[in-house]
Amino acid sequence: MRNETLLNIHELSRSFGGLKAVNNVSFAVRPGIIQAIIGPNGAGKTTLFNLISGRLKADSGSVFFKGVPITGLKPYKIARLGITCTFQTTKLFQHMTVLENVMAGCHIRFQADFFSCILALPKTWKQERKIRQTSEELLAKFDLTHYADEYAENLPFGKQRLVEFARALAAGPELLLLDEPAAGLNIYETAELSKFILTIKKLGITILIVEHDMSLIMDISDHIIVLDQGVLLTEGSPKQVQKNPDVVRVYLGDEHA
User: Fold this and answer.
1) What is the reported pTM?
2) Could you give the CA distance from residue 254 to residue 220 in angstroms, rounded to a whole number?
């Protein structure tokens, strides 16, 4: 039986000095959807992402993934459970090839032990062949096959973003966190990004996305969470959020609401 929720956030809070960046936030993410988190600058979106992924520790509250508490776990442990993320700025290994970057993402699932690697046992060879095959398949999905042997630093920024997507998927996530993936992209690159985000959804991967590009969010999202000054303001479908007077006030001011 399929769980009704994949991720549950319960009364999560985090302060920096006197600033309450995330204030008692609770929501759930259903499996198989694209759920967005939006809000003006300083709303607490990226802080919330960092709390979910383990890059920040919460002051209070809990995060549950598939019913298992993950609050306070190290990022690599959370990744092994099935949550991976991309960042506002690309964090590729610039002096490695595109294929090598994606292969690096697979190694979180690498099962060969230390001595097998040192002795180059057959178990290790099989794992490496599988990692290479998986990585090449991901490059094909993102139309990156012809860049496989190119160094990451030589790719246009939009292509680097897609390589980062492929590397994140190489870890085999059930939930993918995308932190402002359209940042720095032009209109054509954003359109390409939108297509590939929807492709990821079709693979059965749930997506939680923070993004400032409202056209992108309204086009691809199934459900939207709105934060304002660290507080959950409202949530609903894209149409519901667009018509909500509180959301209009936060973005455009009281006179428009």
Assistant:
1) 0.87
2) 28
